[in-house]
Amino acid sequence: MRVLVTGGAGFIGRELVSRLCDGGHEVVVLDRVAERVDPRARLVHGDLADPATCAEAVRGVEVVSHQAARVGLGLDPSDLPLYAADNDLGTANLLAALWAAGFGGRLVLASSMVVYGEGRYRCATHGLVRPAARRPADLDAGRFEAPCPTCHSPLAWELVPESAPFDPRSGYAATKAAQEHLVSAWAREVGASVVALRYHNVYGPGLPRDTPYAGVAALFLSSLLRGEPPTVFEDGGQTRDFVHVADVVAANVLALTDTSAAQPGELVPLNVCSGRPVTISEVARSLSRAVGGAAPVVTGRWRPGDVRHVVADPGEAARVLGFRAEVGLDEGLAELADAPPTAAR
């Protein structure tokens, strides 16, 4: 099978490329970074912003894994043009090139849990509710939990299914939601099939560090390796789902090779997660233990666009793909702590 992997030099992409090459597939990588690409793959060195590069990369491919994206919460609204260009215009260029090439196969999109915004919440009185965005005045006062929008009572969080509505609460999240809309419209028009894998917090060896766009596990580890305590925002009680890169790659391979996962003209969204909730404080403490470093410091500070609780339901990915995450968090964080550092792209 001839597979195009966009972003094949990135954190997840290069692990996926290696796995596909190991499986005997012919792999084409489109990436603006030439280093760290598996030598068994053919590199199209360039950018999704360039339609000619996209046209060269898609020639003759049977399935596409679209991993390329600008990730992270961003620094401030000045980042918005970069996110929109890389994530949305880049995706549109790729889809246009696929249409021009007559492609009608499978596209697997690296989507994200950020499309959900806040997770799934239940009020004891009003049932399932969508809390409003948390107010700066409440966050400044240390009131981090989102209340019921009707009665202002405390809410209980639940696992988020794929049927949850989109509610992006950052610029990055908005661009990931737009990606899903773009590929869904394209699939209906050209008769291709799409599996949108909504990644939760991906970590593992090769996770980029020492960049403001890094994930929280990388930021904690960078602090510890500098001899500093990891700094935890809010009160550390934010709940997340962390999934190891090896598990994410396994889900991608299943989505690319299982022809029954989505029908022509259809987009099937699937959570790629462990289904095991963990607080941000627990992640910081686990990494501190793994490197024998300082205990975390809870700061009470907060970031615009952050959400409080989002942990996904893994059941649909298990039903559709047979995917279940296998790497435990303590095991995976210890492996991350022992891995050599990877520079930001």
Q: What would you note in describing this structure?
A:
The chain is globular. The model has no long low-confidence stretch (mean pLDDT 93). The chain has 10 helices and 16 strands. The chain is an alpha/beta fold. Strand 4, helix 3 and strand 5 (106-112) form a beta-alpha-beta unit. It has a 7-stranded parallel beta sheet with strand order 3-2-1-4-5-9-14, sandwiched between helices. It has a 3-stranded antiparallel beta sheet with strand order 7-6-8, with no helix packed on it. Strands 10-13 form a two-stranded parallel ribbon. The protein starts with a strand and ends in a 7-residue tail after the last helix. It has helices at 11-22, 51-58, 80-100, 136-140, 171-190, 216-225, 245-257, 280-291, 315-321, 329-338; strands spanning 2-6, 26-31, 42-45, 63-66, 106-112, 120-123, 127-129, 156-158, 193-199, 201-203, 231-232, 239-240, 242-244, 267-272, 278-279, 297-298.
The stretches of 5 or more residues where confidence is low (pLDDT under 50) are: none
Order of helices and strands: EHEEHEHEEEHEHEEHEEEHEEHEHH
Q: How many beta-strand elements? A: 16
DSSP strand (E) fraction?
15-25%
